[in-house]
TrEMBL record:
Molecular function per GO: protein dimerization activity
Highest taxon of the lineage: Bacteria
Name this polypeptide is given: Sporulation protein Spo0E
GO biological process: regulation of sporulation
Biological source species: Paenibacillus xylanivorans
Classification via SUPFAM superfamilies: BAS1536-like (SSF140500)
Length: 62
């Protein structure tokens, strides 16, 4: 698994690429959709890493 800093850096790079694609091709273009999905996966990966520790520390309610 990648480190959070690496994931954040990739997220930022992919955000810029998504913005560039949207400006050049329009929001409805397939390339924009593909890049958006890549960005979503990176964000999901980062959130899983970030919140994994939080969920592991939870105490049972009952």
């Amino acid at each position: 698994m990648r480190e959070p800093k690496q994931i954040r850096d990739q997220i930022e790079q992919n955000r810029h690429e998504l913005s560039r694609l949207a400006q050049n091709h329009g929001m409805q273009d397939y390339k924009v959709l593909q890049q958006s999905m890549v960005l979503d996966e990176l964000i999901n990966e980062y959130n899983r890493f970030k919140y994994k520790k939080h969920f592991m520390k939870r105490q049972p309610i009952a």
